[in-house]
Here is the input.
Amino acid sequence: MSAQVLFTALCHTDAYTLDGLDPEGLFPCILGHEAAGVVESVGEGVTSVSVGDHVIPCYQARSKAQKLLLNGRRVSQTTTDNTVLDPSSTSPPQAYCADLEAQPCKFCLHPKTNLCQSVRAWTGRGVMKADGASRFTLDGKPLFHFMGTSTFSEYTVVHEVSVAKVNPAAPLDKVCLLGCGISTGWGAVFNTAKVQAGNTVAVFGLGAVGLACIEAAVEAKASRIIAVDTNPDKFASARQWGATDCVNPKDSATAVQQVIVDMTDGGVDFSFECVGNVEVMRAALECCHKGWGESIIVGVAAAGQEIRTRPFQLVTGRVWRGTAFGGYKSRVAVPQLVDKYMSGATKLDSYITHNMKFSEINEAFDLLHAGKCLRVVLSL
Ligand code: NAD
Ligand code: DAO
Ligand code: ZN
Here is the structure.
């Protein structure tokens, strides 16, 4: 199907792919993945969206089905936070590729992941599944798609499973953010970590993703939220979002993980790495409490990077996890997150620090690199 892209934001991932740091980055390509638009045309067999529908592209493709099979056994539906519902539940059917694919992918049949693989092999190679070819050309030569979305374009072509149809009353210049970073931060807290009331939390990196973790940690009633960044200009917004403490690792000769362990009588219950730096990932793990602390890797490190810690950190009960799109099953969850925004229950508007025209995209990248924006929304 094709969609007219009306608004697209810039995400750190676009920048680091543009800088050649993404191992999967294919060039020449059309970047962009955090966007919203309107369906312009649908191809043969497309049933779940129609021309004129408002949509948010989803790089975590999900498709729809009503039943979930696990190891060949029919079990139940799963919720957006991956918990299994009673099979007799009357909740609306969840989205899996079973309704669109003759054979659902085994990831969609498993309750523990949001990583549908139905089009992954093609989106990873920057092409469409139907014919293994790109839909974009420049001077007669093909351009690769990016993450199955390619939203830095007035029109894009995406797989049916890669869009979420959303409430047409929702302002697309705001809810475009739900296609990536903000949803990821919220989901890291609610779905991946499952933070509970009274838990202590540390968030490393106070860009939009880290702030979204703070927002969710406040909603989860975390008792203490320690915000960590090397740029002290980020602390005002962190406090505004609900951080109880701010720590600049550059302010102390002591390693930041030790600073946090000392502040919290042994470490935090959960930490979130929202930078994409492997040294920060180590610090985030090691500031977790012995015996039960869990660290969630949200940031995407550059190609070739490796994480390390002393294995005894894990032997003594700390847990290292990662999350893609906050564990949300995108095609199902994004419309629900849009509805949550429409109910007034989120800070989504506050993440938009700049509105610019698409022709100003290079200035927008400059703002991103300089750490002077949270999210820039470009209108096409
Ligand atoms: P951002 O660049 O706006 O924010 C990063 C923050 O980290 C900045 O405030 C920066 O000052 C801070 N920082 C840099 N070095 C630091 C250090 N050594 N210690 C502490 N803080 C440091 O980025 P963003 O848009 O918020 O994205 C954050 C990360 O999340 C990126 O790596 C992005 O690729 C990733 N991401 C992951 C997913 C996913 O599904 N896992 C989704 C979206 C984004
Ligand atoms: O299914 O193998 C897979 C990977 C799907 C994409 C996961 C992307 C996670 C990080 C994205 C960064 C922000 C756009
Ligand atoms: Zn699937």
Observations:
- Residues 2-179+328-379 form a domain with the Quinone Oxidoreductase; Chain A, domain 1 fold (CATH 3.90.180.10).
- The first strand starts at residue 2 and ends at 9.
